[in-house]
User: Fold this.
Amino acid sequence: MGGRKKSDKETLLELAGTFTTQSQKNYIQAETNPDEAYLGLKLFAKPLMAVAAAGDAMFQELLAPEIVGPHFLPPEKWLPGARSVISFFLPVTERVKKSNTADENLPSLEWLYARIEGQQFIDALSSYLLDELKKAGYRAVAPSLDERFQSNISVPDAPIPPYNSNWSERHVAYVCGLGTFGLHTCLITELGTAGRLCSIVTDLELEPTPRKYATPYEYCTKCGACLKKCPAGALSAGGKSNLACSAFMRGTRLFLKPRYGCGKCQTGLPCESRVPTRAGSA
Assistant:
């Protein structure tokens, strides 16, 4: 580094990467599963990070009913005086990805660990970064951990539509420059689609990440591989049936209780670990 002072962005990414490597919450412990086959399993590799200005006009566009909806709370609603939104993509490890392709119908236990115990790790990472920002003298909020965060799984005629929330990690990541959507409705990043997202709103001013794309589905080749992978038949060229997807995941509890999930539309695909190459491109 030649003594060069790190930027705030570099420091934050380094903090997130170190926490991901060192935190015991990112590894399966004996209290979760003493089976030696799973003990010490690492859930996530080091994250990607991207930043958007809190005042980016695209956040207001998310209020449109056809995108997220008027229930979406823009950054300044979470933190008055916000300057930046930081989005992280945490790719699951190769073992987790590979394991979830072994069975065509049921998710692997490794994938479910990354979903359930993985969320516990993501919450811990978010809390850690909030503390670091606050120690540096900045205000910060992680919407997914905030008491104002609301989501609706299946209740009709509610202020927030079913299968929606007042903060969309996917759409926020798109605005921040992390990637674009695929037919599976997940985000495709430079490290692919198999992973999880989290974000922080802060009054620390950071240089925005240039968006390398111009349209919401630019990284998707429309190959259709994810449509064929979905064991619930929830995906089609016309979109996703959240009802069918949710019903299938609830069904996995019967076999894998207390964990549930799927992830078949994120693994074993051309976009699993990278931005897929279009036919005929270099």
Q: What stands out?
A: The CA atoms of residues 14 and 46 lie 9 Å apart. The longest helix spans residues 109-135. Strands lie at 48-53, 84-91, 140-141, 151-152, 164-165, 179-181, 187-189, 195-202, 235-236, 239-240.
